[in-house]
Design the sequence.
């Protein structure tokens, strides 16, 4: 390979790493659907999403704890996950992990003392559930990795696979999750009122590991 080719690969790798850091800095924060709720409170309850940075040592890289709650009931979140962010090829991957005993860590989105109790031993990888993001100008667009392997069981016994649509800008999170039957591909669950839109109301980028912050 020519020196020019090596230089191009090095520049591309650095660009992809920088995209991962930019996405991390944009995710770090509290997001609120309050404005969408005001537009139509009957179909859009007020939801808050927290993406709280984890210490560098947790993954030897960039990680987050996330918590999604209804504003009226913050101590009963309906989503709690841990995420690892890394660049791979032309994409930025957000790997998803489940908490083995999520009730122990409820409130970590708003309470740093609880957040500190999460350890690598308390999580397990959700295989097939990584979100793959691509940079498109001033936004990142993501979807669940291909293969329909992100499985979510239902209380009625049906097994579904997850499809996610996500768009992230510096101050906006837009998403829609939909579940489909693994045997028939029939839609089983998900929003019937379109995409959910959240605006950043708190910025936690300063909590990212110092070597992972955008200069």
Sequence:
């Amino acid at each position: 390979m020519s020196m020019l080719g090596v230089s191009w690969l090095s520049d591309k790798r650095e660009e992809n790493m920088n995209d991962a850091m930019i996405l991390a800095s944009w995710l770090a924060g509290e997001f609120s659907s309050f404005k969408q709720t005001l537009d139509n409170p009957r179909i859009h309850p007020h939801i808050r999403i927290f993406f709280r940075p984890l210490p560098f040592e947790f993954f030897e890289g960039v990680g987050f704890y996330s918590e999604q709650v209804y504003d009226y009931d913050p101590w009963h979140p309906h989503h709690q996950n841990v995420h690892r962010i890394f660049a791979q090829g032309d994409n930025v991957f957000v790997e998803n992990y489940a908490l083995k005993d999520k009730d122990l860590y409820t409130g970590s989105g708003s309470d740093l003392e609880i957040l500190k109790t999460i350890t690598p031993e308390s999580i397990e990888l959700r295989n097939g559930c990584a979100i793959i993001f691509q940079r498109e100008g001033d936004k990142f667009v993501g979807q669940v990795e291909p293969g329909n392997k992100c499985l979510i069981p239902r209380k009625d016994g049906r097994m579904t696979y997850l499809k996610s649509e996500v768009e992230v800008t510096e101050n906006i999170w837009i998403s829609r999750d939909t579940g489909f039957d693994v045997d028939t591909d029939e839609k089983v669950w998900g929003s019937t009122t379109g995409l959910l839109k959240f605006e950043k109301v708190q910025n936690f980028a300063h909590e990212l590991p110092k070597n992972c912050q955008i200069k």
About this structure: Helices lie at 3-27, 34-39, 56-59, 112-115. Residues 3-9 have pLDDT under 50 and may be disordered. The two ends are 32 Å apart (CA to CA).
